[in-house]
Prior knowledge:
Layout: H1 2-17, H2 22-32, E1 41-48, E2 54-61, H3 69-79, H4 88-93, E3 98-104, E4 112-115
Parallel strand pairs: 2-3
Antiparallel strand pairs: 1-2, 3-4
Amino acid sequence: MRIIILLVAVLALVSCGRKIPPELQAALQKQFAGEKMETGWQFVKVTHGFGDQELVADILVKEAIPGPPEAQQARLKGEICPAPAGNDAFWKQLQGYKLSVAAYTQDRKFTVLVDCDNPLAMADGGK
């Protein structure tokens, strides 16, 4: 058990130390920062995931998302992930990156994680 905790801590430190290119940081801030808690969620920050080309948008939600995990993920995909269609400029900036959303209340142990659908992912080898 201690080994697992140590491994998670090391991975968290490694992912926190990597810089996100400023143009990507700006695009993600613009995409997510306009939402406030009145809508039920608020953008917190963007971090690197465990892969070099993975970005994770941290979203704070007022209340736990109801339903089973599949329903929670579908709701995040539909309400928080940028739509695959109509956001061409945004997705072009993220081409080559995988975008995920991690939604949680103050208690992060109930985080719901979902991968957003990037319409340009197939054009760059499925990253």
